[in-house]
Amino acid sequence: MLVVWETNCALKDVRIRWYENRPSDGIGILLGTSNILDPLKLDDYHHVYKAIIGPFETISNYEYEIIHKENEQKPATIIASNSFQFFPNSPDNSSSNTYPIKIVAFSDNQFGLTVFNHLVKSAFQRHTPNFILHAGDAVQEYKNLQQWQTDFYDPLTNYHLSQQAPVIYAHGNHDYDKENVYAYTTEIPWYSFTIANTRWIVLDSNIDDIKQDEWLVQELSSPETKNAEFRIVVVHIPPFVEFWEPEAWHDKNEKSWGEFVRTRFVPLFRSYGVDLVISGHQHNYQRGQLDGTVYAIIGGSGGQLDLENVEDWNMYVTTKKTHHYVFMEIWSDKIIWVVYDLKGFVIDKFEMGNGVIFSSIS
Prior knowledge:
The protein has 362 residues and is of the alpha+beta class. It has six helices and 21 strands. Strand 20 (346-353) and strand 21 (356-361) form a beta hairpin. The two termini are 36 Å apart. The mean pLDDT is 91. Residues 101-285 form the Calcineurin-like phosphoesterase domain.
């Protein structure tokens, strides 16, 4: 797991250590301590630290501490500490201590701080998520430090979501760093991991590279993916976009964005039995199913809504042109998906298991 934090000055001898914190006996077991961490200096007032902690091998509560030691004569000072839960793949897949795994999902909140703040507050009041999912475009400009602070991290921090819920993040076209520095997010373009019974695959729709295709085939055919109860893909640009600005879509050829996601990835989703594909980019909500795979567009977390229809793929059963967020519950045998609008009303809900939607309200 990647931990990212920022200070307004460079500090010497900064490390991170992590514990398994067993709630039954209250005893923290030290699992590891990093080497001294060097910050990435963005300017005189922004120094970013990154550290990998883990692996986490049991279903439990964990805690990390960021520590700073000024000199050998003084004990280390704890700068910050946060606790979280993690659910690695476990033989006891039916354990009542594991399920449900709760996830709050957002996408495309860039330049929509008021809306995003309202949605995050609403999510905080209703749910205690184990993870946060973001399908990209958290900011309008990746290198704009103020946008990252005010438009993304402040709302998540103010409502105590980001401190205790790890973020699953897919880069969008606005938060794509062409220099591959990625000060505030992971610089790994595509990656995968397991949470309990679910294999998560995160792709980068900015990078049309055959290496990503080859990696995806290898990942989809791996035992970790094949043996998972659910296979979920997160990719920012949807393979099937229907709403966009017409001039940009036709005259500026933005209809070609992410075309490789549809032409090269969708056949793989079908062949290897991907259950759910989550995207953003298009600023509204849509859900449909094709060849056993559910496709959901959740790009309504703050950006200006896309209202004009530019394509018709004849596959979506639900379209809502409104701002929203998603709450997911992953159980041992099903996924429950609920979508809330700005007023807190449910605008879509479905349950699925084994690639079949067996309950739907839209």
